[in-house]
Design brief:
heterodimer; A: alpha+beta; Ubiquitin-like (UB roll); 5-stranded mixed beta sheet; 5 strands; 14% helix; 20% strand; B: alpha/beta; FAD/NAD(P)-binding domain; Enolase-like, domain 1; 3 domains; 5-stranded parallel beta sheet; 11 helices; globular; binds flavin-adenine dinucleotide; binds FE2/S2 (inorganic) cluster; oxidoreductase (chain B)
């Protein structure tokens, strides 16, 4: 199974196996990785699943759609490599993906 | 369970209770956690029940708050299909419907709310439904489809979402609202009028200012809704969507302070320091608005779950959040933040006939109290931050969609 590494703001790493087709948000929530609240359950409505995608993965995760980009443009700690993790779907091509979590989701 | 390990019992395995169990483990709680829930399912998300689930676009896995394995992995004992029937605060014990008695060191009440019932002739007929859980949603879904006729009593968010989903499934739908407009208690007039127009455009009949007299039946099944003015609305299913009543009886019987909900502070503590209460069953402080109130939303359930878990684990309380909510109807994404108590003025940003717009509610000092955004995620995000900041904003800027709100909100 492909895996994702989540790095908490304090540096703690979580290597999680994630079934293809599930979102990177779901991988964190389902395994108790702290720092992703996912209030809306993956509907791209809350921006509490914000992550920074580490290179070289950014391009492979695709580009945010308009809704996601709008939400991100107001996220408190947005950077050029910010994504909403509920909008990244796991695939074999993303095996090894590394994402960092912001200090807080608000 | 070893005797010297402190135990937390969570009564109610819904969104709040399930989240609290997860946060307790995240925050390092080492003792026992027992999650007692009346429903047969492990905690799941209710929002899709009136949206994707009803339309057949969600699965049990996607609905689940956490996968089944999560609970064993995190040593969270699930006692499902089991009701907490009594609470003895002096002995720190709860009694369960299966006769078991559990000791607790800390108790979290996460009892949720239940649909209000309508004391009407015919409300006990077959085909008269409410919507709170998966069983309700499945019954409703089975009653919807081409050629089926649904009457929704109550034009609140759940009623309107079901109406939209029922249209997508091909059913004929009428929404019957007692007030002069839909969402009268929870939205501003601009949004209400806009949504009424959208529903009508999609073929939903909306009757406002309409008083229901009775539900008529035929062979034990609902066949029409009769209004007080004599109008008869034929249907084969009736959804009663007139709001929810908090489950506070257990707390009341145990002598906890309750008003419209179980009274709690910003650490989610009830009037008994060993008992926290979270989610739809609580009446909580709303610090931005200088009052308390009951919020029925997932973000509130999660925020209070964090408050309780942080308090129990001795962590600093989480920063207060702006209340917010979302709803999906047809191709509309609604996002609301803040509460429009004592709003003085509304400012419209964008055009309701255009691709998206937002309504800002301001107080007398031009501070943003609330925002209602329709297909306008950036305005929602900006509004949420402006509510949190409680800063005065220039109305002209809010009103002009060409002016970005980014700098204001920063
Ligand atoms: C159809 C629908 C659509 C919604 N859509 C949205 C939305 O789009 N956005 C949003 O933010 N919110 C939405 N909500 C509201 C949201 O689902 C609730 O605010 C949230 O579920 C509250 O969580 P809770 O844990 O407090 O209550 P619940 O999730 O209701 O959980 C309470 C649980 O406690 C159980 N229980 C009660 N009494 C006992 C007892 N004595 N012993 C044991 N167990 C007991 C109940 O059976 C229930 O399982 C929606 C709700 C519904 C019904
Ligand atoms: S989970 Fe809400 S935006 Fe991703």
């Amino acid at each position: 199974m492909p895996h994702v590494t989540y790095i908490e703001h304090n540096g703690t790493e979580h290597r999680i196996e994630l079934e293809e087709g599930l979102s990177v948000m779901r991988g964190a929530v389902d395994n108790g990785v702290p720092g992703i609240d996912a209030d809306c359950g993956g509907e791209c409505a809350c921006a509490t699943c914000h992550v920074y995608v580490e290179e070289p993965w950014l391009a492979k995760t695709g580009t945010p759609d308009e809704q996601e980009a709008s939400m991100l443009s107001f996220a408190a700690t947005a950077q050029p490599n910010s994504r909403l993790s509920c909008q990244i779907t796991m695939s074999a091509a993303l095996d090894g993906l590394v994402v960092r979590l912001p200090e807080a989701q608000h | 369970m070893s005797q010297d390990q402190p135990r937390i019992v969570i009564a109610g395995a819904g969104h709040a209770g399930g989240s609290a169990a997860a946060f307790l483990r995240q925050y390092g709680w080492k003792g026992g956690i027992t999650l007692v829930g009346e429903e047969p399912d492990a905690p799941y998300q209710r929002p899709p029940l009136s949206k994707a689930w009803l339309k057949g676009e969600a699965t049990a896995e996607s609905l689940a708050l956490r996968p089944a394995r999560f609970y064993a992995q995190h040593r969270i004992e699930l006692r499902l299909g089991t009701r907490v029937t009594a609470l003895d605060r002096a002995a720190r014990q709860v009694t369960l419907s299966d006769g078991a008695v559990l000791d607790y060191d800390r108790l979290i009440l996460a009892l949720g709310a239940r649909p209000r019932t309508l004391p009407l002739p015919g409300s006990g007929l077959r085909g008269v439904l409410a919507l709170r859980g998966t069983a309700d949603a499945d019954a409703l879904q089975a009653a919807l489809g081409p050629g089926r006729r649904l009457a929704v009593i109550g034009g609140g968010y759940i009623g309107l979402e079901v109406a939209a989903s029922a249209r997508a499934l091909g059913a004929e739908v009428v929404v019957i609202e007692r007030e002069a407009r839909v969402l009268a208690r929870v939205a501003g007039t601009v949004l209400s009028a806009f949504l009424e127009g959208q529903h009508r455009k999609h073929g939903v009949a909306i009757l406002t200012g309409a008083q229901v007299a009775a539900i008529e039946g035929e062979a034990g099944a609902a066949c029409a809704v009769r209004l007080q003015d004599g109008t008869r609305l034929p249907c084969d299913t009736v959804l009663i969507g007139i709001g929810a009543a908090p489950n506070i009886e257990l707390a009341q019987e145990a002598g906890l302070d309750c008003a419209h909900g179980i009274l709690v502070d910003l650490a989610a503590r009830s009037s008994d320091p060993a008992i926290s209460a979270i989610g739809d069953c609580t009446q909580r402080p709303l610090p931005l608005y200088g009052r308390s109130g009951r919020l029925e939303s997932v973000p509130n359930a999660i925020e209070q779950a964090k408050q309780a878990a942080a308090d129990i684990c001795g962590r600093p309380p989480p920063p207060p959040e702006v209340p917010w909510f979302w709803s999906d109807q047809f191709d509309l994404r609604l996002q609301m933040a803040g509460l429009a108590f004592d709003a003085h003025e509304t400012v419209l940003r964008g055009d309701p006939d255009g691709p998206g717009f937002a309504v800002f509610h301001l107080d007398a000092e031009d501070r943003v109290l609330a925002v209602e955004a329709v297909n306008a995620p950036a305005d929602f995000m900006a509004g949420r931050m402006l509510v949190a900041k409680q800063a005065r904003v220039p109305r002209a800027l809010l009103r002009d969609p060409a002016q970005p709100l980014k700098d204001l909100a920063a």
